[in-house]
Amino acid sequence: MFDLTGMTALVTGASGGIGSAIAGALAAQGATLALSGSNADKLATFAATLSGDNKTIVCDLADPAAVDQLVPQAVEALGGRIDILVNNAGVTRDNLAMRMKDEEWDQVIRINLEAAFRLCRAAAKPMMKARFGRIISITSVVGVTGNPGQANYAASKAGLIGMSKALAQELASRGITVNCVAPGFIRSAMTDALNDTQTAAINSRIPAGQLGEGSDIGAAVAYLASREAGYVTGQTLHVNGGMAMI
Amino acid sequence: MSETADRVKKIVVEHLGVEAEKVTEDASFIDDLGADSLDIVELVMAFEEEFGVEIPDDAAEKIGTVKDAIDFIDSKQ
């Protein structure tokens, strides 16, 4: 089950914490990857840890012209096809709404939401021709619940969910599914830096009593990318240890 | 029928899965051939690829019948 042998995938933000776990999960299931990120060295170092003939593509998702080139570059690097698109890259520019600058709003929307739309639009073309595709966007629990200080981030993540539902309806008849995975608190360099009191405060909000791992997100993405998930579309899979049940 | 017309017709038959005799020049993609808006997008993509032309969105919107497609492609070649 969930075998991705022979399938190709573009993953954005691939060298980050969750991104690398997603890439690792897809590669482990047999997919060949185009790994995109903003840091060439980090990408190359990470790519070397994966099995398979994977490619790396440096792309600044804040640059619309570069974003428009990314899918064509990936299709070329992957031998002419793209079966799976994972919109994982995201940034935060946290601030209370009353103090939030236009730039902070714009940057987050541009990278988290607009770039994802551009990539979906570009990937839909070859996927429609192939009558097969899997588009998976990494949103967040805060896109559904909100979070103080993250009006921009929460809007971008909620936007991904709405966009995915619209695309899911447009593309369902062509064998393309469009879904989201919404992580809760996932262990990262940032959460490792928290002290015991802070960690305990977070854990107390999570019925599972602990933070999630990147691999929990990777597994959810691998499932949605699989042929077996072909009847699942327009959905958001929440992976959060029960901290929000929506 | 011109060469363009033959090639257009072939693409329409393949993409919409309709019988060749239904694909007359006057046939409307949506009303007569059962295409939906996504089919039109796909047909335009297929025409662009087959004929090496670019069909901008405003021109694509005006393509309602098989003849509209043939005329547009001929005008670009």
Automatic annotation (TrEMBL), chain A:
SMART domains, per database record: PKS_KR
Q: Pfam families from the entry?
A: adh_short_C2 (PF13561)
Q: Where is the Ketoreductase domain?
A: 7-189
PROSITE patterns, A to Z? ADH_SHORT
Pathway where this protein functions: Lipid metabolism; fatty acid biosynthesis
UniProt binding sites for NADP(+): N88, Y153, A154, A155, S156, K157, I186
Which domain of life does the UniProt lineage start with? Bacteria
Has keyword Ubl conjugation? no
**Known InterPro entries for this protein?**
3oxo_ACP_reduc, KR_dom, NAD(P)-bd_dom_sf, Sc_DH/Rdtase_CS, SDR, SDR_fam
Q: Does the keyword Lipid metabolism apply?
A: yes
**Subunit comment:** Homotetramer.
Q: What does this protein do?
A: Catalyzes the NADPH-dependent reduction of beta-ketoacyl-ACP substrates to beta-hydroxyacyl-ACP products, the first reductive step in the elongation cycle of fatty acid biosynthesis.
* Family to which the UniProt record says this protein belongs: Belongs to the short-chain dehydrogenases/reductases (SDR) family.
This chain's protein is named 3-oxoacyl-[acyl-carrier-protein] reductase
**Organism encoding this protein:** Sphingobium algorifonticola
UniProtKB/TrEMBL annotation, chain B:
Intracellular or extracellular location(s): Cytoplasm
Domain Carrier stretches: 2-77
Q: In which pathway does it act?
A: Lipid metabolism; fatty acid biosynthesis; Glycolipid biosynthesis; KDO(2)-lipid A biosynthesis
> Which is a Gene Ontology cellular component entry for this protein?
cytosol
Description of post-translational modifications: 4'-phosphopantetheine is transferred from CoA to a specific serine of apo-ACP by acpS.
Q: Name one GO biological process term.
A: lipid A biosynthetic process
Pfam families for this protein: PP-binding
Alphabetized UniProt keyword annotations: Cytoplasm, Fatty acid biosynthesis, Fatty acid metabolism, Lipid biosynthesis, Lipid metabolism, Phosphopantetheine, Phosphoprotein
Matching SUPFAM superfamilies: ACP-like
Major location (coarse): cytoplasm
Q: Which domain of life is it from?
A: Bacteria
In this chain, where does the modification O-(pantetheine 4'-phosphoryl)serine occur? S37
| Entry GO MF terms | acyl binding; acyl carrier activity; phosphopantetheine binding
What is the recorded function of this protein according to its Swiss-Prot or TrEMBL entry?
A: Carrier of the growing fatty acid chain in fatty acid biosynthesis.
- Family as reported in the entry's similarity comment: Belongs to the acyl carrier protein (ACP) family.
Know the name of this protein?
Acyl carrier protein
